[in-house]
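Throughout our pipeline, every protein is held as a single compact record rather than as scattered files. Nothing more is needed to write down the fold, since each code stands for a local backbone conformation. The record that follows is passed on verbatim for readers who wish to inspect the format.
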Amino acid sequence: DSIKTVLTSPENRILIKRMLIKCADISNPCRPIEQCIEWAGRISEEYFAQTDEEKRQGLPVVMPVFDRNTCSIPKSQISFIDYFITDMFDAWDAFADLPNLMQHLDNNFKYWKGLDERKLRSLRPPPE
């Protein structure tokens, strides 16, 4: 009933749609681990290429943390989850009840944290 009440207002429906689009846009940490790793690698490579190009052209570097020679992908993912994802998806989960997404988020955070604790900077641990 409370969701129906929220949905009766056109302003609320617009806000919910905007929130859904934003969550979908940044939802990678809420995907199954293999998809999360794949897309973290793709976005990191995109940011590395941007940083490389900015340096090549002598432009200000917009995201200095994404220098391919010094970047820790696990640290970047942990920061992204801490600063942007957790609160947003906690709120979305309270509204829409998304246990699977929240479980993936927890699993992925633990994965990145584990790599970081081992001082690894890559997407995956080295083969044993």
